[in-house]
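This section describes the prediction task in plain terms. A model, or a person checking by hand, is given the sequence of a single protein chain and must write out its three-dimensional structure as a string of tokens. No templates, partner chains or ligands are provided. The sample shown here is typical of the held-out split.
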Amino acid sequence: MRILVTGASGVVGTEVAERLAADAGPGGIVRTARRAAGGDSGPVPWNIGAEAAPEPLTGRPWDVIVHTAASTRWTMSRQEATDANIRTLRAVLGLAGPDTHVVHVSTAYVGGVRSAEDLRGEEFEGYRNGYEWSKAVCEEIVATEHRGPATIVRPPLVLGRRGDGLINRFSGPYSLFPALVTGLAAVAVGDPDGYAEIAPVDEVAEVIAQAALGTAPGAPRTEVISAGEDSMRLSDLVRITCETLNAFRAEHGVDPIAQPPTVSTDSWNRFFLPLAAQWLSPVQQEAVRLLAMFQSYTSMSRPFEPTHKVADPGGVMAAAVRHWAQSKPRQALGRTVPWTMINAA
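The expected answer:
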């Protein structure tokens, strides 16, 4: 079996390639990444969509293509999202034959609530950002333009491995941890009882690997990774994060951080933020802008319906926070600086 893994140096792609190599043997796996040194043992360098596929990837169709390569930035414009995710998918599908099983990694949030009232909703047809919108378009492309078997895998926010929290890059939800330590996350915005869906990267990779190595489906199949009704709530996420950080700080004789209060999204956007914005420093304003993007992800009105259920998401959260703290001790043990009014006399 010949399997191609794109985005093999990314958070999910790294784990997927390792699992596939362990189960199928390294000889059957070819990895590709945009930034790669190449060589016999490394990923094949390929800037997907911007250049033609290199010779090692062409010649004959693949048995399986696992497409994990993507930009997950929530700040992309429509054109940036098109170039980063939609154009790259079409380039990868150019390597697929009619019998190639395409395993496409999407996001669970394409199935979430859409609203024209969301930030930039009109630009992205009701989706909250260019990442979600482009992933929804990609799912449609896989289902309609690829004539062979296809599996769509939809993970939620991805954190480190279940047991030890290991992950190859701190991105996305990890920006919350230093914000809590420094005091930039002065409040938690959202519904404290809202659902906060997360999944460990090793379980996400396992679902993808099982799809790649299993029997190809006769019709497009969708796998949703979620804790469902057992998902953490926003209040759980903030509490577990602060408790884990404070346990680490206590081990090093450092004072604990305070758990921030929760303010509803409506109250924050309508009252608190407009009144406070004029007094915030540029750094605080940027922190508010970035953390605001988590509002609709960490306090959903209803959970996803899983085909693969994540057990004990609180334990996954604690392991991820602990690993981040151990890897970034200077940040984890840093001093909290309360918000101040820069224009105050």
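For orientation: Confidence is low (pLDDT under 50) at residues 115-120.
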